[in-house]
Each structure stands twice: as C-alpha cells, then as structure tokens.
Design goal:
The chain has 3 helices and 6 strands. It has 245 residues and is α+β, with helices and mostly antiparallel strands. Strand 2 and strand 3 form a beta hairpin.
Length: 245
C-alpha cells in the first residue's frame, strides 16, 4: 500500500480493479479500529452490491486501486507458515536429541506445533478446492470466448458486420482472452505450490524418553521438503512366482 494512510480518504469514490484489469467497483468508505488504524475498505461492486475487503487485499498507487486475489494472498501465507512451523518442530526435536531442553517441554511445544500444522493443512486443503473451482471457471470462460471469436469471424466473413466493428470486437475479445489465460496460469501456479507444501509439511512424529517411562518412537514416512533431511526409505520386496511377470 504505497499511498500514505492520511490520504486514503481521498480514494473514496475511486474505481477498483482486480489484478487483471477487470473493473470491480468503487471505494465507498473505510473501516477503522479504535486507534484509527485502517482495517477494511467498503466497495460498491459493478452489480450494485457492497463488499468489505481487508486493507491487506488492496494496493493503492495514486488513482489506481487494485484488489489482490484472496486465493493468491492466502496461498502465500500457507506456503510461508507451514514449512516454517515444520522447521521449528524439527529444530525442537534436534534440541531434545541434544538434551538441551527437557522432554516435558518438548512434548508441550510439539503438541502445540502439531495442532497449528493440522489446522493450517485443513485450511490449505479447503483453499485447494477454491483453486480448482477457479481453474474450471477460467477454462469455461476461455471455451466460451473461443466460440465468440468463431462467431465473430463468421459474421464478418458473410458481411453481417463491417471491418470497424470486427476490429473493435476482435481486439476486445483478445484482451479478455489474455486476462482469462493469465488468471488460469496463476491458479495453476498456486495449485502446484499448495500441493508441494502439503506433501512436504509432515515431520516424523517423535516422542522423547520421559522419566520413569519406557521410550516409544513412532516413525511416519512422509514426503519431506527438499531442503530438509530425507525421511527413511522402506523397501518392500514381493516374491514373484513362476507365473509372475
């Protein structure tokens, strides 16, 4: 948000677009907390409805106000937080192995980290469903746009529309196709990042030896991030009979 906060009220009435240049609506008002900090922006959409957006989802660059994709901003948070907490849990285990912290303290913190990771993974999986819906929507839009181009070409070919009409419509369609293609590519990139982080966020479960208790070690083999130590590999050998291939 490059514009000074004191000037944000000057944005009231200004148009808002999404990252791809599509019109969203216009700023109607801002919501602030008790200390005067801006928290939300109220937007009247092009359909005449009202929506409330967090300030983190908006960028202000002079007269240009852009609404950042909710899916992209949430995915960025998950892709940052999940590996970070995973590494903290791994570092906690290492400190326990080196006997630098008490087993009881490890167990308490490990339980907290596991709970946070579990919730983040659930939220990220829900976001994945939204991403898939976004990809499907873009694919349907691109399919309809291709039919629109086809009909435009046919109408121009048989003389139903003149050259000026054809060029104006063709240019508008190409711009719309470009926006939809870019959005679809962004969704695909988010899908890939979320898949990678969900596959690589599960550390091996570990329980240190507690006083007056038998030690128990649970080993969970799960894909790990490339920067972290690889999990143990278990190879299963199946005996093949004479008829096996």
């Amino acid at each position: 948000m490059s514009q000074p906060l004191s000037n944000l009220f000057l944005s009231i009435g200004k148009p808002v677009k999404d990252e791809y240049g599509r019109p969203i609506g216009r700023i109607i008002s801002f919501g602030t907390n008790a200390t005067g900090k801006f928290e939300n922006a109220y937007i009247e959409t092009s359909e005449g409805r009202f929506t409330k957006q967090p300030m983190e989802s908006l960028t202000f660059n002079g007269a240009e106000i852009t609404l950042i994709s909710r899916i992209k901003s949430k995915a960025a948070v998950f892709c940052d937080q999940i590996p970070f907490i995973w590494r903290k849990d791994q570092a906690l285990k290492d400190l326990t192995d080196k006997k630098k912290i008490a087993p009881e303290l490890y167990q308490e913190l490990h339980t907290n980290f596991s709970a946070v990771l579990g919730q983040l993974r659930k939220d990220a999986q829900i976001l994945q469903d939204d991403v898939l819906q976004g990809i499907t929507r873009c694919e349907e839009e691109l399919r309809e746009l291709s039919y629109s181009v086809l009909h435009l070409e046919l109408q121009h070919e048989i003389g139903k529309i003149n050259d000026d009409q054809y060029r104006a419509s063709f240019s508008a369609l190409q711009e719309t196709i470009k926006r939809a293609s870019t959005e679809k590519a962004d969704f695909e990139a988010v899908k890939s990042k979320l898949a990678n982080v969900l596959l690589g966020d599960a550390p091996k479960a570990y329980e240190p030896k507690l006083p007056e208790q038998k030690s128990r070690v649970f080993i969970e083999t799960a894909p790990q991030p490339t920067e972290l130590p690889e999990p143990p590999v278990v190879v299963y050998v199946k005996e093949v009979g004479k008829a096996g291939i």
